[in-house]
Amino acid sequence: MSRAATPWRATSFPGDAPMAHIVRARLGRIGQLDARFIRHQPDGNGNRYEPLIEERFPKLVTAADEVLVRAIAAPLSADQPLEAVLDGESVAGQFCGTHWEFVLPAHPAGARPRYRLRFRDHPETTTAEFAYEVLARKHGGRLAVAGARVTVYPGDATDLETLRLGDVLVSDVSWLEDSTGAIHEISLRLSHPPARIFGLGERYNALDQAGNRVDQFVYNQYKNQGLRTYMPMPVFYTDRGFGLHLVTDSYSWFDFRTPGTTILGVEAGELSLEFLSGSVNRQVARFIDTTGEPENVPLWALGPWMSSNNWDSDAEVRRQVALTRAHDIPATVLVIEAWSDEATFYIFNDAEYDPRPGTEAFAYADFRFPEWGRWPDPRALVEHLHASDLRLILWQIPVIKQTAALRHAQNQRDEEHFIARGFGVRHPDGRPLRLPEGWFKDSLLVDFTNPDGVAWWLDRRRYLVDELHIDGFKTDGGEMVWGKDLVFADGSNGLVNRNRYPRDYISAYYRLAQRNGGICFSRAGYTGAQTFPAHWAGDERSTWDAFKRSLLAGLSAGMSGVIFWGWDFAGFSGEVPGAELYIRGAQLACFCPIMQYHAESKAEFNQDRTPWNIAERSGDPRALTFYAFFARLRMQLLPYIEREAAHCVAARTPLMRAMLLDHEDDPAAVPLWDQYMFGRDLLVAPVIEEGAASRTVYLPHGRWWHLFEERWYEGGRTVTAATPLHHIPVFLRAGAVLPLACHHDARLGASMPSDPEAAKPRVLLVTRFVGRTEQAGLQLECDGTTLLVSTRASTVRPLTLVLLDPFEAIVVDGRRCSPQFQVLHGIELPSVSLGGLAGRGV
After folding, report:
1. Does the annotation count 208 as an active-site position?
2. Which of 83, 471, 539, 664 is catalytic?
3. For residue 32, what pLDDT is reported?
4. Known catalytic residue: 479?
5. Of 228, 231, 245, 763, which is the most exposed, with the fewest CB atoms less than 10 Å away?
6. Of 55, 185, 208, 479, which one is the catalytic site residue?
7. What is the pLDDT of residues 164-203, one digit of tens each?
8. Bridge-partner residues for 426, per DSSP?
9. What pTM does this model have?
10. Domains in the chain, start-ordered, CATH in brackets?
């Protein structure tokens, strides 16, 4: 804060606009209403990755720390020097071109240094007085064990304790304590055998985090994420039989930079650890089990999705639907982002209505939709999409947008009621939080710990679900809690809610969507994200490097409990991808839990990531042809994906699976990140290098059937597989039975309807196995040489068994059968027809 001569007048702002008051209040709080000012914000906005230039460091000060104070001033010049006054003594500063810096000396624990900043030659222009307490670092503490849970109880410095759990030694407990006895941070050391480190949420830099310091801070990093992430989780697993879940919502970190040592800490007054044991797969299952019952998604969510931020009218949406049908491309979900008035985010753009008091919600009948508007009949549009076998997802954001410059009547009424009732996140002094930086700056943030506020917020969107029957929400954002000391209705603070907020926000919307059996599609998340599917990887460029990063994000998210994950394949931002990148992205997406293309915004040229636009922009029709093939193949795979999704939910395990989850005893499989298992039976090796005509694939022990080459490979070795642009290496595990859907043609990539209920198993790819299995209503039994099939309990007709292995005998309902032949991709394969399915057609 500063004070000096020549304040700005209220008349400097136009009219009595709310924005004028907001700007004036903000400038006044940070001391910029004067011609000469100094700006210093010790805690900034709470952005740990991109702090303001005028902050103080470190935030938690110990007796070992000098303190760096930075400030911005006007005039900003070495000829107009600033000085710090520390406990009455002057401290010279250093001019750094863009700001001033002061180094305050270390003080003993318990001290409370006070300082202010002023112009040396104009001492009347000064900041308010700031202070910080020097915290005492103490060591010791008691370690209490209850089952797999270890709780740390800080004690006095003579109370030193260690704890051994198998190969892990817990020691060196320390904490930071203020003069009242309050604890601000706890840390400890784990000593263990050197290990690979997995998990930690959705991470884009690597699958194995050994050698890194990884923190948990939900963050909107727009592209180029590195170690920053929308969805961190305080859990890691190792290939040495142990893992650890740090049970907290507060800011925390793990330091894995020293092999055999992990240092972890949390900014909280308590520390609790849940140790995980067994294989990595068992560690993952235990983590999911203890953090929330995973939810499955409806079958329609597993088909191809279509999306673009450019589809901002009824006419454009209908045009895109017509194009996907004209090209014989199936799609089961359509996302509309630019549907609302961009102010309330619950009223369709161009809708006419009589503004209501903030106490009242709208029904659909309260709106008039003019023919000239962008959305002349939303109900008819939803009905058209449903009749076209498309489910509709609408975009959302948890803010009341600052629209003062636009004078939006309904938004203004909502905001007034919102503030009056305290439905938003607040500062300690009771002021409502206005987002201080970034996306939706100056907007109000909903407090999802306030039940009345949640009910009020969702009531305004209820007509979308109950009357229009939309199928879910794209719950964007959620990384907006700026400040440790913010106040929430349940008594919690910003330190806790930075990470917790996405869980409260998305779960509220998920409950609303579930009224129609719908889902959410979310970017942000934290522990427990598996309880409200699904999620996507956030904002990525259309580059080959971003492609690789998205693959890493999907595998690490899966290992952190996120079963249903997707990405904007081939990127959503910047110049459109070339045909090769687009095709390779579509091939990977076909074998991801969620398959979606999406584009960011309009530009001089069409930026849509639709296959027809990519084909036109690139001049390469293969973008359209090959995308259509893999979208149809995705529909054919639905019986398999549905089966595996149900298994993964029940078994608490990912659908998109890093190789070590199923092959941890195979040293060659453990470090792999550029190939993975999709479900239990398909090994997928995406092509992630531009221009690659082949790639190496490690095949674990056993035999593997190449889905497109239609031949067996022996495992236990690395093979080189050809990668022509029209396919990628995908292998079926020996011993598996793969169910596929088809329409009038059983060949892979043949025409398929968009109705997921029509995607029933019509073909079973059968390999030799030993034992019994039930598939598509059939009872299959095999001793490795003879295949016994019972159809008596089956109601599925017709059905074809395609035999990928020779059998000495095939017996159906007690009768021996002779194989016929079926073409799946390029060659004729032995098959047995049950109910009339044979040859090339169905």
Report:
1. no
2. 539
3. 60
4. yes
5. 228
6. 479
7. 999 999 999 999 999 999 999 999 999 999 999 999 999 9
8. 432, 487
9. 0.93
10. 2-132 (2.60.40.10), 136-291 (2.60.40.1760), 303-651 (3.20.20.80), 675-834 (2.60.40.1180)
